[in-house]
Specification:
The protein has 2 domains: 93 residues, Immunoglobulins (Immunoglobulin-like); 636 residues, Beta Barrel (Maltoporin, Chain A), CATH 2.40.170. The protein contains 6 helices and 41 strands. The strands form 6 sheets. It has a 22-stranded antiparallel beta barrel. A 5-stranded mixed β-sheet has the order 9-14-15-12-13. Strands 1, 4, 7 and 8 form a 4-stranded mixed β-sheet that branches. The longest helix is centred in the N-terminal third of the chain and has 13 residues.
Length: 751
Amino acid sequence: MKSIIKLLFIIAIYTTNAQNSISGKVTDNQNNPLEKVQIYIEEIHKGTVTTANGTYVFKNIPNGKIKITYTYLGYKTITKNLEINSENKIINIQLEESFFQIDEIIVSTPFNKLQSENVMKVERLDAVSIRKLGNTTLSEGITNIAGVSQISTGTSIGKPVIRGLSGNRVLVYTQGIRLENQQFGGEHGLGINDAGISSVEVIKGPASLLYGSDALGGVLYLNPEKFALENSSEFNINQRFFSNTIGTNTSVGAKLSKENWKFLARGTYANHSDYKIPSDESVTNTRFNEKDFKSGIAYSKNKFTTELRYNFNRSKLGLTEGIALQSKSKELLEPYQFIDNHILSSHNHFFFGKSKLDIDLGYTFNDRQEFEEHEDHNENETEEEHLEHEKAALRMKLKTFSYNAKYHFPKIGNLEILSGIQGLQQTNTNFGEEILIPDANVKDFGIFTTANYTWNKNTLQAGIRFDNRQISTDRMEVVHDTETHVFEAIDKTFNSFTTSLGLKSSFTDAITARLNVATGFRAPNLAELGSNGVHHGTNRFEKGNANLRNEKNTQIDVSVEYKTEHFELFANGFYNHLNDYIFITPTNEIEDGEQVFTYIQENAKLYGGEFGFHLHPHPQDWLHLESVFETVIGKQSNGNYLPLIPANTWRNTFRTEFSIGKWLQQGYSSVTLQSTFAQNNISTFETTTEGYNLLNVGFGGDINFKNIKVSTSISVNNLLNKTYIHHLSRLKNDGIFNQGRNIVVGLNFTI
């Protein structure tokens, strides 16, 4: 931390003042000025809006290449690549009407282009849309992205699944750095609150070229909320109420931006009781609470910009053992998890005229404790006093330092080249009376180059990368009752080359096609290599396999889009071949009263896709009909199906957009029918799951009172109180149903 501050201080002293500026006017096709068009420069965290006469101005712009984006509801997004060289630029923009979603800059891809310009198709969901859906957690909210599902344990714990791949095959990025929080565990959630998240981007398919090991299945990229517009301040209160869990979620945020300095802070508290199934029974000890704090500070000057962010999240999550004691209490029972996550990140841009250097530094600290039921309860203690003084049965502290440096070479005609290094150093230490995985050290190092070439209406992108991962563990002995569990020392090195090649071509103004071929890899994680104990969250004894090899895959993606002013049709197909796919399987052994599961490898394949349309008929501009079908099939080379593959789903949404006078703006209403088909393609230790239909509705809009904007939302999920079990629910084996009807009311005050 001291070295980071010292580096930024030296840079700040070294830089000189610049007075470059960008100004202009934004109009529509009839040359009428457009007011409140949002204009943003991502690299230097500067944003502004146009005045009543459509004008705008940015001051103190650094020399070098920057990207400026113009967005306005109901109009096509425009992005401009500018090269600033000690001058004042005047950029006048004319926006064209569009009734589809705003085109956004995609941060998770190497060259940060608009979605419409990207060679890779990346799905994106903004924070406002997530809140409108009325989901209890962020992990639940992202399941509304086609091709994304979750492995859930009640309402509090969810792990993302991308096209049938899950666990640490899906890499999570937040604040520009990789999230490391013992994500190998089946019952370990994201550990990220949706407050303070501006949008979610999902790369579906191997992204090892950009992110290294663990991005074999895809990337979930969480963009933090932006700073306030230049020379402005903002205060925000968000309150949500959940009927099913008698839950609340309160978030308070403040922002202040000057010409060079920017600051924000947000505190959030969520508290939920046990969730109810449609019979009105509560699932005992699925209650949870969460405290979350996010802050950020940014500075931009002449040749560099820097951004420092910090996130603290404390979660207490009940682990249910079935439907028993019925209570509306929010006090946790044993067993439960107590998890602290600290995430510190430094995001920096250095401008060298026609080239640019990005440096991201990160430190994450995860402290995970699991408490079990004990019979030696002091009768004189209350339950709250007992929980306060009891020591964790399982406690692991994971410390990770990560770094990522990317150099953008000067553009040569239509050719862009980027090279970089990436890596991490990680330690895992046990402190509890039980041990599931041993103390360990992990080191990653990767080096990569990727290039992007554009001609006419075509774009070609290619890249290559080399990675090295070293894993070493200590020999440990743990005595449990009369048995001794030995963790033998492991010293392993894993190497891999990965490549990618993609082509985007626009045959006409309406038809765009993408073809991507990429390889990926994943080194075995600590649990797969060295676990040797009872995993209470999954009720099984897990034994690692020190002989596991790298997982490697090759995936082919094909995407075709047909888009006109009032109709959009898309088809995404993929075929994913995996060598040495690692999965857990049961044995006939019993240890510590639980069945023993171990890890084995087998070649496998997954294939499927997402298909849908979006109809926006003219002249009914307020009406939208959206339909998406998604499917994935996963098989081993011996013909057996892979475990934890989501069922086919078909989601149909009827949505309207409207305004009522001046008092209700950007109003909306929606009705969604989600049809989940039966899942009969199951692995040897799974059971089939019946199909079901869920009906969800929503309504809301913005109400303006002078300088206060109140955003309202009401959603009802599972309106008909349907009884069902999701195939990827970890409570399925116990016959426990998913959540019944849930009414969510949200109020968001912005001053």
